[in-house]
Amino acid sequence: MVNRIWTFSNLLSISRVALLPAILYFLLLTTDTGKFLAFALLCIAVATDYFDGFFARKWHQVSEFGKIIDPVADKICVGAVGIVFVILEIFPLWFLLIILIRDLLILLAGMWLKNAKHMVFQSNLTGKWTVTIIALTFLLALILPPQHFVVQILIYCSTGMLFISFAQYVLRFYKTMFKSLN
């Protein structure tokens, strides 16, 4: 495990957050050009989410910092774009609240584990699939009308994945707690 912060894979995670102000700016323009530029930047952000993990594994750059910054960058980006989507009436408020509450609970549990048990959970496969489906939902919501059946189906698929991945995180948390009590 690499103990460095400034690895290529970690820079990709950080770049995802660095892209966020421009993404939000172009979304809030509510013009076709703004939508196009936001879409393009979101595609780049989604690519950084894939490639940060790919390069971390390929170049043996998996680090404690990377295990933290990657999911935190995801949560910041998904939350901020989700808020703008609710403001623009692209997504319903209930969908955003499910995302934010789940992410906040996972983040708080992760911070507790880091401080109390000196452990950092890596994202699990279901969590990664959940973020991928949410990203696809966001991207298609930019090019299709909000009420389009594909967008609506993806919102419900994302919601289902949010609950499944949260249940897996809770189970993993409790297994870790039970194991540490023995």
Protein described:
The protein is mainly alpha-helical and 182 residues long. 82% of the residues lie in helices and 0% in strands. It has 6 helices and no strands. It has helices at residues 8-29, 32-58, 64-87, 93-117, 125-143, 149-181. Helix 3 packs parallel to helix 5 and helix 5 packs antiparallel against helix 6 (149-181). It is globular. It starts with 7 loop residues before the first helix and ends with a helix. The model has no long low-confidence stretch (mean pLDDT 89).
List the topology elements:
Layout: H1 8-29, H2 32-58, H3 64-87, H4 93-117, H5 125-143, H6 149-181
| Main sheet specs | none
How many helical elements? 6
- Low-pLDDT residue intervals, each spanning 5 or more residues: none
Mean pLDDT: 89
The computed structural class is mainly alpha
* Separation of the first and last Cα atoms: 27 Å
**Proportion of beta-strand residues:** under 5%
Helix content: over 70%
Question: What is the molecular shape?
Answer: globular
Radius of gyration in whole Å, from Cα? 17 Å
The secondary-structure element order is HHHHHH
| Count of beta strands | 0
